[in-house]
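Inverse folding, one chain.
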């Protein structure tokens, strides 16, 4: 099953040839001179950041200085004050969406738990359902979602859906036609078919987000698409794994979050902005922003990025957190093809004594990305970065935990495509309580992973080295 837009990972059909030729012609020959690039990170952007400048918002707007100070002091009770204040100030300094208080964040591991929570929320919807996804398959899971959305529409709930044209390239047109016939607004993101586009044909720019918003007060986001490959969890006991290994396809390990509270309005803005840019029919935006009371104690920032923006806010946010890490950087990611700057900040962090650990896949749906990422192992290991590969599952999660106070869950991989060519969405959660859950999840994955040792890695086969070098040539487009 293919889950990432790449010329190396599409099914062998007629559209594969069309996509390959289009990408090759447009981006290797026609647009070489104006190829997108990642921004140079200037740490001076954040030189004036300090805890006293941190301000928060709730569902009604910006809080007063006194209210912000009280919230910060309450958060500081649970963790190391200096580290928390530093990360909050840095997050504030990255211009973008606000730090929003009063949210409840629920960590969801793997497909079964995520789908169960999503189905429950959809069933409770009273006003609207806005859904944005990279993949929407016509399989058992996809049909369950479709049936439920149609049922809610029949009861007067407005349903709007954005799906990616490449991500859903193998989903029959009839599947989406059925949704439309039942009154659901369906929007295809950057159609592969040039005759179907309503604006410029941008086949290389994809919508990789996985976002579900219910009644403007609940949001789901992370790495999980709408597909049956997620139906089996990755955390089954070892005896069961051995018994089923020969009978079932590989299990998928992924992470999602459910967020209830005022910050959902920021995710709603991202959805509506995409809808508008894709020339969807006008929506009555006022009803998508109800007054939402505080649901919990978490401080959350909605971070979105789009290929048509000058730079990825997600990229800058992550780099700022890693550069200023004091204790540890724990990253779990499905597709790891670092650009030189990300590579450098990870190595620099390890060299200054920060515990940098990466959990990456040992198997994947992308041959090219897998080997391109492995081509950087030697350099990272020499710098002191610890690398682990997840066993017994296809790792598809995209999470980060830094210093026990800065957490991120979303759709963004650590590769050029996510930072340059895709629309992505992440949630950054600031504070130690949610971070404790993230750390427990990281430790659990660590126990299911194998360490990559430098001495052994140096003795890998010649053919593996050849594959790595070849794949690395294509890293910008993967």
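Residues assigned per position:
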């Amino acid at each position: 099953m293919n889950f990432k837009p790449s010329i190396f990972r599409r099914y062998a059909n007629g559209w594969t040839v069309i996509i390959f030729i289009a990408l090759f012609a447009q981006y290797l020959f026609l647009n070489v001179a104006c190829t997108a690039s990642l921004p140079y990170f200037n740490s001076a952007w954040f030189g004036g950041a300090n805890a006293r400048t941190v301000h928060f918002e709730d569902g009604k707007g910006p809080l007063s200085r006194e209210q912000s100070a009280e919230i910060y002091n309450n958060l500081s009770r649970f963790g190391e004050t200096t580290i928390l204040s530093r990360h909050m100030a840095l997050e504030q300094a990255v211009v973008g969406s606000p730090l929003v208080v009063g949210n409840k964040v629920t960590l969801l591991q793997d497909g079964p738990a995520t789908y169960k929570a999503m189905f429950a929320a959809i069933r409770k919807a009273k006003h609207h359902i806005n859904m944005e996804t990279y993949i929407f398959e016509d399989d058992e899971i996809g049909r369950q979602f479709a049936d439920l959305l149609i049922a809610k529409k029949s009861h007067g709930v407005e349903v709007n859906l954005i799906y990616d044209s490449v991500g859903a390239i193998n989903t029959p047109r009839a599947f989406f036609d059925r949704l439309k016939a039942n009154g659901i607004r369906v929007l295809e993101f950057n159609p592969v078919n040039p005759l179907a586009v309503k604006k410029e044909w941008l086949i290389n720019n994809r919508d990789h987000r996985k976002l579900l918003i219910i009644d403007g007060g609940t949001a789901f986001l992370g790495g999980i698409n709408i597909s049956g490959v997620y139906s089996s969890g990755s955390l089954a006991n070892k005896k069961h794994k051995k018994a089923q290994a020969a009978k079932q396809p590989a299990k998928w390990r992924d992470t999602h979050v459910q967020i209830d509270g005022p910050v959902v309005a920021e995710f709603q803005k991202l959805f509506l902005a995409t809808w508008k840019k894709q020339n969807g029919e006008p929506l009555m935006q006022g009803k998508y922003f109800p007054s939402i009371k505080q649901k919990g104690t978490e401080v959350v920032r909605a971070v979105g990025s789009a290929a048509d923006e000058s730079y990825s806010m997600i990229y800058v946010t992550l780099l700022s957190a890693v550069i200023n890490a004091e204790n540890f950087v724990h990253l779990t990611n499905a597709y790891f093809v670092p650009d030189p700057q990300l590579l450098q900040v990870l190595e620099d962090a390890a060299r200054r004594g920060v515990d940098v650990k990466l959990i990456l896949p040992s198997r994947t749906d992308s041959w090219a990305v897998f080997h391109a990422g492995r081509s950087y192992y030697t350099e990272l290991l020499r710098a002191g970065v610890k690398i682990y590969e997840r066993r017994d599952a296809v790792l598809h999660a995209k999470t980060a935990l830094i210093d026990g106070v800065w957490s991120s869950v979303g759709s963004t991989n650590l590769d050029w495509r996510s930072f340059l060519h895709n629309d992505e969405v992440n949630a950054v959660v600031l504070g130690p309580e949610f971070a404790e859950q993230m750390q427990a999840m990281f430790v659990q994955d660590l126990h299911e992973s194998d360490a990559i040792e430098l001495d052994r890695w140096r003795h890998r086969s010649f053919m593996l080295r050849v594959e790595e070098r070849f794949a690395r040539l294509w890293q910008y487009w993967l």
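The longest strand covers residues 100-109. Residues 103-288 form a domain with the Endonuclease; Chain A fold (CATH 3.30.870.10).
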